[in-house]
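Sanity check

After download, print the first record. It should look like this:
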Amino acid sequence: MEINVNFLDNLRLEAKFDDFTVITDQPIRYKGDGSAPSPFDYFLASSAMCAAYFVKVYCKARDIPTDNIRLSQNNIVDPENRYNQIFRIQVELPEDISDKDRQGILRSIDRCTVKKVIQTGPEFQIEQVENLDEDAQAKLGCQRILIVDWDVHHGNGTQDIFWADPDVLFFDTHCAAPFYPGSGNLNEVGAGLGEGYTVNVPLPESAGDIAMEKAFRDILIPAADRFEPDLVLVSAGTDPHHNDMAFNLSYNGFAVLTSIVLGIAEKHCDGRLVLVLEGGYNLTSLARGVHTMLSVLAGGDVPELMECGLREVLEAAEFHRDAFEEE
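Expected structure tokens:
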């Protein structure tokens, strides 16, 4: 996970990661303003909250109420070495919890991720770089990244992150507003240096294979040819399937979309392609949709798309043809 830190006024700091922002400060005795917890306070709280999280997970899976469960952490500091500390986590459990669950709750605390990372002893690497953004892309060996999002919901978070970034081309087909989240209009094309590098294709709820294929062939492929990506990332939701949230995509449709992004990756970046599973709420279409994508990636056949029902009509016509021919 990448965490970016901004320097604010006095000793205040701002850390940004995913969709979250954390503010830290220092106590007044350390020349701060005392307006927020210190970075070390957050670190200490993280182990207590991580322990409580695993207790919550254990209890939730067994319908055990947590209203009367209390958890506390105290840090015992070695007076001769303040970096040598004991994290003492104590939990108070109601009398009606069985002995089996008491042991289970204690074992769940022992699974705390923060605890295990501390006990393993993380390695710190401290280095100077010329440009943080360029360094992150250099680690992937990439300067230009194409992100394709065919999830039925607009990728508003991805769009916001790369809104002004000319090194990332974001292409998104989605169900048009007012369908959630209501963003992704045609005129949302990025800003500043990133203007023109956001490509939204909002579609009606009835859109299916033919419309999606045309969007990919007539809009995505020319854009990718001009952009020439070094890496292709796909937000590969299965919720456009006709048995799911919206749209009328078939499994053949998923096969064709997968073949198109695979073709782009093979043409421009030696096949460097990553598909990340996103939305999918019907378990059957989720499983078959993923299987279809993997089959294409493994070299399987890619069918020709037709209007919904046309293939079946052609098969029926062939089946009945002899019945209406003169002998």
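If your output differs, re-run the checksum step. Summary of this record's structure: The first strand starts at residue 4 and ends at 7.
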